[in-house]
Write a structure and sequence with these properties.
Beta-lactamase; five-stranded antiparallel β-sheet; 16 helices; Beta-lactam/transpept; 2 domains; alpha+beta; elongated
Length: 529
């Protein structure tokens, strides 16, 4: 090779080397590339944002009762073998999926694993294995946003800004930590929501319902203020996995306390109260087991002849014929007006977007039909109401004052426990006199002592109430399904609690609704709730 060619080749090599050096210099001095390189060595992980909880009337938690942990999994530290037994099936699948990951990640575990040398952080578990009032409180979606019930109605307040703590991890090319991660604190500003429920009363009601009911509802009011202490719907569902119940039998996602049903004889105290107010209590009726109205026959339950009955006996024996005749004496306008004052036909609104069904109160024009009015007088026909409405009705009749059942109190500062914004405005309207309320309590005490409500009797105190068996017009295997009600209070002389029990769409329930009332009332009495 000639010298000239050697010099040319050497010059070319020097030129290429110079170009590479210049390119490297340009790359190192370019801020965009520097930022990308830095980003590749920094991993930012987010801890779950704090969500506000629900509290009972005494400030006890109704949600957030459990704790799980977010464990920091770092590549090359044996996460799969050390943590496999500490997490659920979804966590085990995540461990397998990320077994060759080149960056740290969080794994939800069921216990504190810091003793294994693994960093972890506690996080609240929204719903426990035995959730409370799931139909009322509702559930959240996969992103932690309220999807149903009060969770949805108060999502903005419970979520706040959605901000939470972050963990900044400096890692090398293999994803291992170069130094201790830095935690940056941020709070969502979420607030809690305080309900009128009592955790103890709710648990007692749910325990009784689970033991004695297949479908239905229990509503408990504190009689003096009409605050809802328990609201139960059966069957229940798991709010941590609502999808599992979407197609389950007996519609477990349905909040039966908020749905409207045929009422039946629990409506009869309304006519009794109207008669007491009007001074029309002297009616005596001879019941042959049926009553004829303009050629239509209306039968008492089972066609049983009750003989000669007055108001007290008619309530005790639940005589349909008597209340048809009493309704004719009182007139449709008087009875319907009182029913409307007692909340029939009106939804109970918790928020602008969350309310009970309104049920149905027939218009006065519809009650000009003698047959329709006869049905109305013993709670049949078009009349529909929710268990919450029936609780409000009875509560008003035994106190004289209608107070809409209250579910909400206020938002709550979860750090200090201080109440923030009131969520309900109390209103009270006198609907019957104190004398009428007192007389009606004694009449309904007779139903428990001597009548159809005898299974509601309590060993240590008195109770008062009314049974109801409402026809639904629906059949199963040729047998009509019925709604079995009991609406009662205890003690009868000065009620502390108003309890409504509904077993819907039943043929022959294992336990009467009156017996369920008694079981719950005895529990409340025994633990001094």
């Amino acid at each position: 090779m000639s010298g000239r060619r050697v010099v040319a080749l050497y010059a070319l090599l020097v030129g290429c080397f110079a170009a590479v050096v210049c390119r490297l210099y340009w790359l190192c001095s370019n801020p965009a590339y520097a930022a990308r390189a830095a980003a590749q060595s920094v991993v930012t992980l987010r801890l779950p944002a704090r969500r506000g909880n629900f509290y009972d009337c005494e400030g006890h938690l109704l949600t957030g009762l459990g704790t799980k942990w977010e464990a920091l999994c770092v590549p090359g530290e044996g996460n799969y073998t050390r943590l496999f037994s500490c997490t659920d099936a979804a966590g085990q699948a995540l461990l397998y999926q990320k077994r060759n990951a080149l960056a740290p990640f969080f794994l939800e575990v069921e216990q504190d694993v810091s003793a294994l040398g693994i960093s972890c952080w506690p996080v609240s578990v929204r719903f426990s294995a035995a959730p409370l009032a799931e139909h009322l409180i509702g559930y959240v979606d996969g992103d932690g946003k309220g999807a149903a019930g009060l969770e949805a109605a108060f999502d903005a307040a419970l979520s706040g800004t959605g901000e939470g703590d972050t963990l900044t991890c400096l890692v090398n090319a293999q994803g291992k930590l170069r130094e201790t991660p830095e935690q940056t604190h941020a709070d969502s500003g979420a607030v809690g929501v305080q309900l009128t429920l009592s955790r103890d009363v709710q648990r007692a009601a749910e325990a009784v319902a689970a033991r004695m009911m297949t479908t239905g509802s229990i509503v408990v009011l504190e009689t003096a203020g009409a605050e809802v202490r328990a609201c139960v719907s059966v069957p229940g569902y798991d709010p941590a996995d609502p999808a599992a119940s979407l197609n389950a039998p007996d519609s477990p996602m349905l909040n039966r306390a908020f749905q409207s049903y045929a009422v039946g004889s629990v409506f009869k105290p309304v006519l009794a109260a109207a008669a007491l107010e009007a001074g029309e209590t002297g009616l005596v009726y001879h019941c042959p087991g049926w009553c004829e109205v303009d050629g239509q026959i209306f039968r008492c339950a089972g066609g049983v002849a009750h003989g000669e009955v007055d108001l007290a006996a008619a309530l005790e024996k639940s005589c349909n014929g008597y209340f048809i005749r009493l309704g004719q004496t009182l007139g449709a306008e008087r009875v319907r007006t009182l029913a409307e004052q007692l909340g029939f036909g009106q939804a109970v609104e918790l928020t602008d977007s969350f309310r009970t069904a309104a049920g149905k109160l027939p218009e006065l024009a519809a009650l000009t039909s003698s047959g329709a009015y006869a049905n109305f007088c013993f709670g049949q026909g078009e009349l529909l109401a929710t268990p919450v409405q029936i609780a409000g009705m009875l509560n008003a009749l035994v106190t004289g004052m209608y107070r809409e059942p209250l579910f909400l109190r206020n938002t709550l500062d979860e750090t200090t426990g201080e109440p923030l914004t009131p969520l309900a405005h109390r209103r009270a309207e006198r609907v019957v006199s104190e004398g009428t309320a007192s007389a009606l309590r004694m009449l309904l005490a007779g139903v428990v002592e001597n009548g159809t409500g005898h299974e509601a009797a309590l060993p240590e105190t008195t109770a008062a109430g009314k049974t109801g068996t409402a026809q639904t017009g629906q059949f199963r295997d040729g047998v009509e399904l019925k709604n079995n009600w009991f609406a009662g209070v205890f003690p009868a002389e000065k009620p502390q609690y108003t309890i409504v029990v509904l077993q819907d769409a039943q043929t022959v329930p294992a336990h009467s609704s009156a017996a369920i009332f008694a079981a719950l009332a005895e529990m409340l009495e025994n633990f001094g709730a």
